[in-house]
Specification:
This protein has 316 residues and is an alpha/beta fold. The protein contains ten helices and twelve strands. The protein has a five-stranded mixed sheet with strand order 3-2-1-4-7, sandwiched between helices.
Length: 316
């Protein structure tokens, strides 16, 4: 049985795993990224961590034919450079060349959200589907299309950004610099902003209790937890958030018609409390939904392991 080696490079941790052909982990290893260090030092730790994971699996370097890396950046299709990893401060970084200074082995690299989607498509919630849309609802809205079990990179090879479709013309400014992106309305960052705005309008809301009367402690769970207790202001926050998310999904489904939509990231931890109303709204608003059944919407099942699995499969 073949084994595959994948690295998920994050702003907090470098997570490495060895998986088998059935996408099951043989070994996992993780070290802190310490992102303020130099590019060379971080990549050296990636190589060292990869060797450590191989050792933990009882394997030798010659037992794998390549290393896959998921990086938090658009990847230049011509040279494999990291175009801009803002959480690490890297621009036009030759991650493949630097890695091979530490270990001369073929390296495959892709965007980390693409790797997570590939992991879910091959070994997670979407493994029964060939064509997948995945949205990760975190600090931003990461997204990826999988077509025939492969990452769709578009005509120029730079990939897709579903989180930056325009949801509201001339709307809230997004971190990308544009206005009205889905990310500006459906990310955890957006949810926190929406929660604080509603709390300001309703000073007796139970959401204050949820954050200890300190708006600096508001997070992506505050409105959801208060809404479960019947707080009217919190219910309005959740309803609005669900509407934004469903509108974005509906547009993407109408354009792409995936076999399934997978939701990951912190907000997806609300499970059916989030996903059931999103399903209903997508069914109501998706083009020709009375004639063409919209795809199922499922919660991601692999958590943080999805990125490692997807990276490991990049060269398969």
């Amino acid at each position: 049985m073949k084994n595959y080696l994948g690295i998920d490079l994050g702003g907090t941790n470098i997570a490495v795993g060895v998986i088998d052909e059935d996408c099951r982990f043989v070994a996992k290893h993780s070290v802190p990224t310490q992102g303020r260090r130099s590019f060379g030092a971080i990549v050296a730790d990636m190589a060292q961590g990869a060797r450590k994971a191989l050792s933990m699996a009882g394997l030798r370097e010659q037992d794998v034919t390549y290393v896959g890396i998921g990086a938090p950046s658009t990847i230049d299709p011509q040279n494999g450079h990291v175009v801009f990893a803002n959480n690490l401060g890297w621009k036009d970084a030759d991650i493949i060349g630097e890695f091979r200074k530490n270990w001369d082995i073929p390296v495959k690299v892709a965007n980390d959200a693409d790797c997570a989607a590939l992991g879910e498509a091959c070994g997670g919630a979407a493994k029964e589907f060939d064509n997948v849309l995945m949205l990760t609802l975190g600090t931003g809205v990461g997204g990826s299309f999988i077509i025939n079990k492969k990452i769709y990179l578009g005509g120029n090879g730079y990939g897709c950004e579903p989180g930056h479709i325009t949801l509201v013309y001339n709307g809230v400014r997004c971190t990308c610099g544009r206005k009205g992106c889905l990310e500006a309305y459906a990310s955890v960052t957006a949810l926190i902003r929406q929660t604080i705005e509603m709390m300001a309008a309703y000073p007796t809301s139970r959401m204050y209790e949820m954050c200890g009367n300190d708006i600096r402690r508001v997070d992506g769970r505050t409105a959801f937890e208060a809404s479960k207790q019947g707080d009217e202001a919190a219910l309005q926050v959740v309803e609005n958030y669900v509407s934004y998310l469903a509108a974005g999904i509906s547009s993407l489904v109408t354009t792409f018609r995936p076999g399934v939509v997978i939701l990951g990231g912190g907000v997806s931890n609300q499970g059916d409390y989030l996903i059931d109303p999103v399903r209903q709204l997508v069914h109501e608003t998706c083009y020709a939904s009375d004639l063409i059944e919209p795809p199922e919407i499922l919660r991601a099942s692999l958590g943080n392991d999805a990125g490692i699995i997807g990276a490991a499969l990049l060269g398969k």
